[in-house]
Design brief:
With 364 residues, this protein is of the alpha/beta class. It has 2 domains: 2-164 and 348-361, Glycogen Phosphorylase B (Rossmann fold); 167-343, Rossmann fold. 46% of the residues lie in helices and 15% in strands. It has helices at 11-27, 43-49, 68-91, 104-113, 129-134, 166-169, 175-182, 201-216, 230-240, 254-260, 270-279, 295-304, 317-330, 332-343, 350-361; strands spanning 2-6, 32-38, 53-57, 95-98, 118-122, 140-143, 157-159, 190-194, 220-224, 245-248, 263-266, 283-285, 310-311. The protein has a 7-stranded parallel beta sheet, sandwiched between helices. Strands 10-9-8-11-12-13 form a 6-stranded parallel beta sheet, sandwiched between helices.
Length: 364
C-alpha cells in the first residue's frame, strides 16, 4: 500500500501524522509512505527526523492583516496545486491522508481529482477551514470530539480520538527515570509548563514574573519556552541560581516530562489535550486566543465541562496563572479529581483505529 500524508505547521499536526504513519508501518512494514508539507515549516525538519521522506509545497496561509505576502498567496496556491498534482501522479498513492495545515489543502484536492480516496483527520473540536473545504469530497473523516456533525457530513464521520506517540502512552512508569533525566528531587512536587511546539508568550511572561513564588513554596519547575523566549528564560534561571527550575527551548522527551509532572500548565491545542488525557495529568489550560475560530478555547471547554481541567483565559493569565498553579499543587484532592476525570476522555487506540480506516479505503 502507498499512502501520502499531508499537512503540518505545528507539532499538533505533525506528531499525529507521524503516529498514523508509524501505526501503518507496524501493521504492514511494506507500506510506502510519503509526507507532503509546506516549505519552511516545522514538518520539513521533524518528519525526516522521524524517518520519513517529505516533499515541500510553496503554500502559505493568508494573514488577517493586509500584508505583501497576502498578494502572493494566489500564485503560491496555484503553484502548490500544480506541484501536488505532479506528486500524486508520480507517487500513485492508494490513499491520501490530510491532518490539517496549509499543505493538506492542495494535496488532498489533487488526490481527489485523480480518483484517490481521501481521509481527513480533524484534531480539534472546531473544524479548521481547510478541512471544512475538503470534507465534501473526502471518503472518511476521523474526529476527536463528539458533535462534529455541525461541520462535516455525518455519514463520513468516525470518532477515533487523536493519535498520540507511543512513548507518551507508555510513559506512566517512568517517574524514576524522569527525575534522573531532569535532575530533579523525588521529594518535591513538579510543575510542567509547556506552550506548544512554538512556545506561548503569555504563559512564558506569567512564569517569568512568578517562578520565584513557585520556588519559594518548595516546588520544582520544568519549563519549555519555545524558540522566541529561551534566552530570557535562561537568563532568569541563571540569575535565580536555583537547581529546581529547568529551562528548555523544546522538550523532545515529552514522555519523561509528563512522567515527572504533578501538574501541568499548557496551551489547549488538540495534541496537548489528547496527551494530557492519555497521561491523566491535572492541568491548567491557557488557550491561545488567536487560534482559528478560537478552537483552543473550545478544546479546553470540552474538558472543563466534564470537570477534567481548569481554564484561565489568556488575557487573565498574568494575574491568575501563578496563584492557580500554587493552589493546584497544594490541593492533592483536586489534583486527584482532575486526573481521574481527564483519563475518561483518553483514546489510546486512536492511531491504530485511523490506520485501519486508511487500510479500508485501500481495500485491505
Amino acid at each position: 500500500m502507498r499512502v501520502i500524508i499531508s499537512g503540518g505547521g505545528t507539532g499538533g499536526h505533525i506528531f499525529p501524522a507521524v503516529a498514523i504513519a508509524n501505526e501503518l508501518k507496524t501493521i504492514d512494514p511494506r507500506t510506502e509512505i510519503l509526507f507532503v508539507g509546506a516549505e519552511g515549516k516545522m514538518e520539513m525538519q521533524k518528519v525526516p527526523q522521524a524517518g520519513y521522506r517529505i516533499i515541500g509545497l510553496p503554500i502559505a496561509g493568508i494573514r488577517r492583516e493586509l500584508t505583501l505576502s497576502n498578494l502572493t498567496f494566489p500564485f503560491k496556491l496555484v503553484n502548490s496545486l500544480w506541484q501536488a498534482r505532479s506528486v500524486v501522479k508520480e507517487f500513485r498513492p492508494d490513499v491520501a491522508v490530510g491532518v490539517g495545515g496549509y499543505a493538506s489543502g492542495p494535496l488532498l484536492f489533487a488526490a481527489g481529482r485523480n480518483g484517490v480516496p481521501t481521509l481527513i483527520q480533524e484534531q480539534n473540536s472546531y473544524a479548521g477551514l481547510t478541512n471544512k473545504w475538503l470534507a465534501g469530497k473526502a471518503s472518511t473523516i476521523c474526529v476527536a470530539y463528539e458533535g462534529m456533525e455541525k461541520f462535516f457530513p455525518s455519514e463520513k464521520i468516525k470518532l477515533t480520538g487523536n493519535p498520540v506517540r507511543k512513548d507518551i502512552a507508555l510513559g506512566g512508569n517512568k517517574r524514576a527515570e524522569a527525575l534522573a533525566f531532569f535532575g530533579l528531587s523525588a521529594d518535591k512536587q513538579t510543575l510542567l509548563v509547556v506552550g506548544g511546539s512554538l512556545g506561548a508568550r503569555t504563559i512564558n511572561e506569567s512564569l517569568e514574573a512568578g517562578v520565584g513564588k513557585l520556588l519559594e513554596a518548595g516546588y520544582q519547575v520544568v519549563w519549555q519556552t519555545g524558540k522566541g523566549f529561551i534566552e530570557r528564560a535562561t537568563a532568569l534561571a541563571t540569575s535565580l541560581n536555583n537547581e529546581n527550575v529547568k529551562v528548555f527551548e523544546f522538550i523532545t522527551a515529552m514522555d519523561l516530562a509528563y512522567a515527572v509532572a504533578d501538574a501541568v500548565v499548557s496551551r489547549a491545542g488538540a495534541l496537548s489535550v489528547s496527551e494530557l488525557c492519555l497521561v491523566g495529568k491535572p492541568a491548567i489550560l491557557v488557550p491561545f486566543p488567536f487560534a482559528a475560530e478560537d478552537h483552543q478555547t473550545q478544546n479546553a471547554l470540552a474538558l472543563v465541562k466534564r470537570g477534567s481541567a481548569l481554564l484561565i483565559p489568556d488575557a487573565e493569565a498574568k494575574e491568575k496563572l501563578i496563584p492557580a498553579a500554587l493552589a493546584l499543587l497544594a490541593d492533592e484532592a483536586k489534583r486527584k479529581e482532575l486526573s481521574q476525570n481527564i483519563r475518561q476522555s483518553a483514546r489510546p487506540e486512536a492511531a491504530r483505529t485511523i490506520a485501519e480506516e486508511v487500510r479500508k479505503l485501500a481495500g485491505l
